[in-house]
Amino acid sequence: MRVLSLIAVLMALLGVPAAAAQAPVPDPRVSIFYYPWYGNPARDSGWEHWLMPGSPTDVASNFYPVRGLYSSSSEPVVRAQMREIAAAGVQEVVSSWWGWGSPEDARLPLVIAEAHAAGLSVAVHIEPYPGRTIQTIQADIDHLRSLGITRFFIYRPFDIPVEDWAALRPQEDGIQLFAQTNLVGKAQAGMFDGVYTYDVLLWGGDTFPRLCAQAHHLGLQCLPSVGPGYDGTRATFDLRTKSRRNGATYDGMWRSAIRSGADAVTITSYNEWHEGTQIEPARSRPPGAAAAATYESYDGAYGLSGRAAQDAYLDRTAFWSRAFLRARLSQPRQL
After folding, report:
1. Which helix (H) or strand (E) holds 300?
2. Which CATH architecture is the domain 28-329 placed in?
3. Structure pTM?
4. Hey, where are the domains in the chain?
5. What is the DSSP string of 29-67?
6. How far is the first Cα of the chain from the last one, in angstroms, to the nearest whole number?
7. DSSP secondary structure letter of residue 213
């Protein structure tokens, strides 16, 4: 009901007649990948994911969050994040999950509670945690279903044989499984419901038309991943980058996803600060730091600067979310 209500509101904002709002329409989604893995000494046992290995002070990102080095265990922080995501027109949070007992598992109930309070649904991104097998994934799904999770995005699915996925699927009714791959035939053989790409560096917008055409031909959903750019040079050994081009990269990927007839759009990411794919508000330096800029900011994105630029990508996401919904409502359902 919450999703239907949101669709009705957005349709009204777009000027869609009430009669059309009552007719059967596709259920388009805009989903965003979310990371609840950050910690700091004030709330947690120490620093988690913020600092470069071996450094007590250097942040493992080319950007610096407006919220500072926050804890994903903080209710006010997660509440504010979920409200930001909802205000950007996103309908679903896909929360990174690294197995039972992981910090991401422990924080999932908080993510669910605050997401639902903001009118968002929650899916889980099952990551390649140590010891992951088809047996552990089946146990994961059963565990997560007890929390109300029924949509699962599987990162690197074919670390596990496709035959194992096909054998698992008949045992799990009432769920949706999405494979992170461009190998659509393998996803179909594994009985996945659809495919997504996640990696905005490897799979640019130019790959979306073929991906979606193949997915639709085989009866799968196409959920390509769009993102503002990529830069993990400060946090990883990966020297490859994808420039944000002051917002042009993000715009180009959204346009391609819409023109490709995507069934849904996945956004990489809300807050993956290590790889520089985040759209969470950023600033050039920590509060109280010296005047010289230490980190990249969003200055220049869409012609904005200073405080106005901090929310540039969230605001642009709201624009594209509306555009995607408008496009999907004007197209026949693919599946």
Report:
1. none
2. Alpha-Beta Barrel (3.20)
3. 0.90
4. 28-329
5. EEEEEE----B-TTTSSS-BSSBPTT-SS-BSSSBEETT
6. 22
7. H
